[in-house]
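IS110 family transposase (Nephila pilipes), 178 aa
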Amino acid sequence: MANVFVKLCVVESTGGYEKLVIKLYNIAVHRAHPNRVYAFAKACNHFAKTDKLDAKLLEKYAEFIAKNDEVIEYIVSQKQEELKELRAVERNLNDEVHANKCRLHKVTRKAREYIEKQIEFAKKQLEQIRQDIEDIINSDSDLKEKSKLLTSYKGVGRKTAGILLIEVPELGRLDNKE
């Protein structure tokens, strides 16, 4: 694939094994549900079943979904994968802190002490996770540059920039039409 320009890669769901290969090339990916591909094949009168013919069918399917603005995801780098995992933990801790704060006024004094300790511990973990996220972003020149650009906008701080870089990995990859 070194000398081939690939705009979109279509793969059938195979339990995540496709991530290992696609991640190396940093390209847009559409993980096609087998039933949708099968329905598309029927609509195209494609009934032969060989690997070569299946590849041609997936190529037609890719052209079709690219024209029709189907959902395309980006399989991301190892650092972005780590950022996504940290973001998920951050979100869970935020939810935990919120739930515990709501619980505080409904419990006895002794239970309140434990809940307050849980909140304090979760807040410390949140600080550490946010620092880890910032460290990872700063260790990657591409992410660091994107973060710098995002924070140059009024109202966008480091935390918001980090969330955008994690939740919207296609930032900076799309052209004006996309």
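The helical segments are 17-25, 34-43, 51-67, 78-104, 109-139, 141-151, 158-167. Strands lie at 8-12, 28-32, 73-74. ok done for today
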